[in-house]
């Protein structure tokens, strides 16, 4: 399981790093005012749908169903089912895009009540309408990615999202050179989103595989309705972190620039969350599905244990690192052009508080596949809705007193609420299977992460201020050295404590996957 997870994680990491480049350029181009708020709210609407369908979410229902049909009825039956699914979801997402386009003023007003009566509302409506073509492409893209994942062909699905970011980066650089008006630049960027979706669809369609989705048909028969009925709860549940941010944006929209601050802070949270969460959803669902269908308790416990170790081992040090380095990271990435020092301070505050919920979000991503593999998508959905309710109530209570910090803290509380509900439900339903070695290693991981955080705080307190007035390239080099040193310390502690064996890790990476990866 290590090798495909590393493949997916590498693709996600590359995509997220390009996303940082994209967002830094957007911040320099649009700043954090009304134009940026409008564009980023519209972008979040599309982004939630993109995450809802792609990034491992559809795997929760598609992979088990496709594998079952292939094993019981043969490849032809599975391909016919996939063809009906591509056609049906493609038509459904096209219809959804058209309906959203017509109702967009009402949708934006509901998502951002603070925009009502302001020019920002119409700007957000215009931006969102230009982005809507992406939704029509997102459905077929999601199905093709799921089919490739079911066949252990992870590389293409892991790296195809890079096209989305590359298209937006190229357009933003061109707009910075040509120095267009911010409102006009936002409209051009919005139109580019649809083109980026088309590029990704064409790439996956070109490498679709050996007739894994033929013939293409539109069908809403009983089998298709049953599949969608099982898939939708899982897809909604898997997008819990995005729904939490949307809920936060609804409350924050009353404060100028707050939507932008929350968006840029959350982009930094999405780096570790995307690496672990997408890998868990993409790789762990097929792994657990096979173990559950084989009724192999040892294999189930091993898969769940490894997933939890990987999740905690990456999320905990990431949380601590983001809390300690929130200010220098935000300053380095975003404080350029129209994005000023006040925006940096507000975004860094939101980032530090959002990071407190990161382990909970990753924990949810690691636990949800245990339910999905058992065809139980309802429990993760109820846990997500419960956490969303906690976030909304907490944001309404905290935002008037603490502003953007209160909204960010509410999002973190909502994440922990979802994780707690999912843990309780899993323990009551089938018991969470952790090996004795996994329990021991989790404690050691926590010790190593805390030790790393203490040393990182010392470096950030005494080393980084020495280059605070230096050129940005020197500041970037110093920050990267501090982060690299923290990673090296953490990795060394894991080896020293016996959590990680370099020889075993190398064997896992080199082990043949047996199928395309």
Overview features:
517 residues, mainly alpha, 2 domains, 21 helices, 82% helix, 0% strand, globular
Describe it:
By secondary structure, the chain is mostly helical. The protein has two domains: about 1-435, no CATH class; about 435-515, no CATH class. Helix content is about 80%, strand content about 0%. The chain has 21 helices and no strands. The protein has helices at about 1-30, 35-55, 60-75, 75-110, 120-130, 135-150, 155-160, 160-180, 180-205, 220-240, 240-250, 260-295, 295-325, 325-335, 340-355, 360-370, 380-400, 405-430, 435-460, 470-495, 500-510. Helix 2 packs parallel to helix 9 (about 180-205). The longest helix has about 35 residues, at about 75-110. Mean pLDDT is about 80; it is low at about 510-515.
Class inferred from helices and paired strands:
mainly alpha
Specify Rg, calculated over alpha carbons. Answer: 22 Å
Mean pLDDT equals 82
Tell me about the largest β-sheet: none
How far is the N terminus from the C terminus? Answer: 11 Å
Strand content: under 5%
Low-pLDDT stretches are 512-517
The dominant shape is globular
Please write the string of helix (H) and strand (E) elements.
HHHHHHHHHHHHHHHHHHHHH
- Compute the number of strand runs: 0
Quickly count the helices: 21
How many domains, as an integer? 2
Please give the share of residues in helix: over 70%
């Amino acid at each position: 399981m290590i090798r495909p997870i590393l493949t997916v994680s590498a693709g996600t990491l590359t995509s997220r790093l390009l996303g940082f480049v994209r967002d830094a350029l957007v911040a320099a181009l649009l700043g954090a005012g009304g134009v940026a708020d409008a564009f980023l709210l519209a972008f979040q609407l599309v982004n939630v749908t993109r995450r809802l369908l792609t990034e491992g979410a559809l795997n929760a229902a598609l992979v088990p169903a496709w594998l079952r049909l292939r094993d019981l009825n043969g490849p032809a039956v599975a391909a016919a089912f996939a063809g009906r699914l591509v056609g049906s979801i493609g038509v459904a997402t096209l219809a959804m895009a058209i309906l959203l386009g017509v109702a967009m003023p009402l949708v934006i007003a509901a998502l951002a009540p603070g925009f009502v009566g302001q020019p920002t509302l119409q700007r957000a409506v215009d931006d969102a309408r230009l982005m809507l073509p992406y939704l029509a492409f997102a459905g077929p893209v999601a199905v093709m990615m799921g089919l490739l994942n079911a066949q252990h062909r992870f590389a293409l699905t892991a790296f195809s999202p890079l096209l989305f970011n590359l298209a937006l980066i190229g357009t933003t650089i061109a707009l910075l050179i040509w120095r267009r008006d911010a409102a006009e630049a936002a409209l051009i960027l919005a139109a580019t989103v649809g083109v980026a979706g088309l590029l990704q669809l064409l790439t996956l369609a070109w490498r679709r595989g050996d007739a894994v989705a033929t013939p293409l048909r539109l069908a809403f028969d009983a089998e298709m309705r049953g599949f969608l009925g099982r898939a939708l709860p899982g897809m909604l549940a898997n997008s819990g972190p995005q729904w939490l941010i949307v809920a936060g944006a609804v409350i924050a929209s009353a404060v100028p620039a707050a939507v932008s601050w929350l968006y840029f802070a959350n982009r930094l949270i999405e780096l570790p969350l995307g690496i672990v969460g997408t890998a868990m959803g993409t790789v762990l669902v097929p792994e657990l599905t096979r173990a559950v269908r084989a009724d192999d308790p040892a294999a189930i416990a091993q898969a769940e244990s490894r997933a939890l170790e990987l999740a905690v081992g990456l999320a905990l040090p990431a949380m601590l690192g983001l809390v300690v380095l929130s200010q220098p990271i935000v300053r380095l990435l975003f404080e350029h052009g129209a994005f000023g020092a006040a925006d940096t301070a507000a975004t860094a505050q939101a980032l530090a508080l959002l990071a407190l919920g990161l382990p909970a979000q990753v924990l949810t991503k690691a636990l949800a596949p245990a339910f999905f593999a058992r065809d139980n998508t309802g429990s993760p959905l109820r846990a997500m809705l419960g956490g969303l309710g906690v976030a909304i109530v907490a944001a309404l209570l905290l935002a008037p007193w603490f502003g953007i910090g209160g909204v960010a803290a509410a999002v973190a509380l909502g994440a922990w609420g979802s994780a707690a509900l999912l843990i309780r439900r899993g323990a009551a339903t089938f018991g969470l299977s952790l090996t004795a070695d996994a329990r021991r290693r989790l404690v050691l991981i926590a010790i190593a992460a805390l030790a790393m955080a203490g040393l990182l705080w010392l470096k950030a307190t005494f080393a980084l201020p020495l280059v605070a007035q230096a050129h940005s390239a020197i500041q970037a080099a110093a920050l990267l050295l501090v982060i690299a040193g923290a990673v090296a310390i953490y990795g060394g502690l894991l080896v020293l404590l016996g959590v990680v064996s370099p020889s075993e890790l190398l064997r896992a990476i080199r082990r043949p996957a047996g199928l395309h990866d």
